[in-house]
Design a protein that fits this description.
Length: about 325
């Protein structure tokens, strides 16, 4: 944990496009002027229908394209790469996005639904030494245990040779990108008494499956918007979305939380007992925009929507957030 506040620059503006999420919704409206669904923002939206332009797809996975603007500079990073090899590439084409603008890729943690497209995307971008920010634990062999004691092995994280000509930047520490305008948190301390990790999670150690509930490679992306505050982007929040947000404030010295977006991991019998405490703590943090998606689960999403009727936006493939 750093002893000093990191020099994260405040940016003038931020655009986030949901490339991959568990669901897609072309029609629902939002009272947030900063949020548009894909029909509203695509220049050829009239052709966005089954008999015309092909529709983007949803899958169990997560990926966001992030554009940052400040001081006459513009930077683009990719946060996570979806669960399959082709989903991000398909959606980028159907949304008319140019992946060659990507300057760095950040992987939130090593699970397949966040890294499945990494090799194919790296080869498509084809930039020598394109940095991919990872944690060493992402290369572990991992799985989860079923109720009968059987361990279901996860798809392995790609070796570095599979992502060439990109290169891995391996770090446990906070990491600044894009001329200090984007912060990768590094390992997130566990401060709360209810965010206790993912108890079913396992790692293969010396040939034996061992409990690995903490998932220390879980990181988030933090951006500070001038006169608004922090935007916290989480892949799965295995560290806990409250732990993640509290640490974001500590790293940056910024007290105001403007937006919290991404997977909150409130899904499944072992995690749904955290929903009410999470809602209580979110009320203390008081974000102006809340976008629970991916692994939050319908119970968590509904609880957050009910508690935050004006801040809540349902995550969807194709959503554009202009902050």
């Amino acid at each position: 944990m750093p002893n000093t506040v990191l020099p994260l620059k405040a940016v003038d503006g931020l655009e986030i496009i949901s490339l991959i999420d568990n669901s897609i919704d072309f029609l629902s409206s939002s009272e947030h002027r900063e949020v548009k669904n894909i029909r509203e923002w695509m220049k050829n939206s009239r052709n966005l229908k089954p008999k015309g332009k092909k529709l983007p797809i949803a899958e169990h996975g997560f990926s966001m394209l992030i554009r940052i603007y400040f001081e006459n500079e513009a930077h683009t990073i990719l946060f996570d790469t979806g669960g399959s090899s082709e989903s991000v590439l398909i959606n980028a084409e159907r949304m008319e996005l140019d992946l060659s603008e990507i300057e760095a890729i950040v992987i939130s943690h090593g699970h397949w639904d966040h890294s499945g497209g990494l090799s194919a995307i790296s080869k498509t971008i084809n930039k020598k030494n394109l940095p991919i920010i990872i944690h060493e634990d992402m290369l572990k062999t991992r799985g989860s245990i079923d109720s009968n004691g059987t361990v279901r092995k996860y798809v392995d994280f790609p070796k570095e040779k599979k992502v060439r000509p990109s290169e891995y930047i391996v770090t446990k520490q906070p990491y600044l990108l894009s001329n200090n305008s984007v912060l990768v948190t590094g390992e997130i301390p566990r401060q709360t008494d209810f965010e206790r990790g993912y108890l079913r999670h396992r790692a293969l150690v010396n040939g034996k499956w061992q409990p690995d509930p903490w998932i220390w490679d879980d990181r988030a992306v933090i951006i500070n918007i001038k006169q608004k505050g922090l935007v916290v982007l989480s892949g799965c929040a295995h560290a806990g979305i409250i732990n993640t947000t509290l640490y974001s404030k500590e790293l940056t010295g910024v007290s105001n939380i403007y937006a919290i977006m991404g997977g909150f991991h409130l899904i499944g019998k072992n995690c749904e007992n955290k929903i009410q405490r999470t809602v209580i703590e979110l009320k203390t943090l008081n974000p102006k925009l809340l976008v629970p998606s991916h692994c939050t689960g319908w119970r968590g999403v509904h609880a957050i929507a009910k508690a935050f009727p004006h801040a809540f936006v349902k995550g969807s493939v194709g959503n554009l957030y202009t902050l």
